[in-house]
Amino acid sequence: MKKISMAALAAVVIVSLAGCGTKERDELKAHVASLQQELTNTKSTLATTEQELAQLRDHVKIIEGERDQAVAQTSEMSNELTRVKEELAAKARKRK
Rounded CA gap, 8 and 2, in Å? Predict the structure, then answer.
């Protein structure tokens, strides 16, 4: 009788431990699933951010090109202004 009681007690302990393990495994599986979903969302956000970054870089290149053109035009206009001022000064000197 004692052997049967001990075997029954051992069976109850083993079943209890096995039940806890299942619960913990289920919790871990749920946590892993949550982390996988978070990783998927993060990858999606990263892809979107990389696309936006590429668009911004393209926009910066366009703006830099426009800036370079404006600088070149400003330089040309400055040179033209200097030339016109010199011509005006020369004409003013001739009039005197």
Answer: 10
Q: CB-based contacts of 26: which residues, under 8 Å, 6+ apart?
A: none
Cα–Cα distance measured from residue 33 to residue 35, given in angstroms and rounded to the nearest whole number: 5
Among 30, 31, 2, 23, CA closest to 15: 23
Average pLDDT per 10 consecutive residues for the chain, totaling 96 residues: 55 55 87 94 96 98 97 96 94 85
DSSP string of 25-45, one letter each residue: HHHHHHHHHHHHHHHHHHHHH
Residue indicated by tokens 């040179």: 79
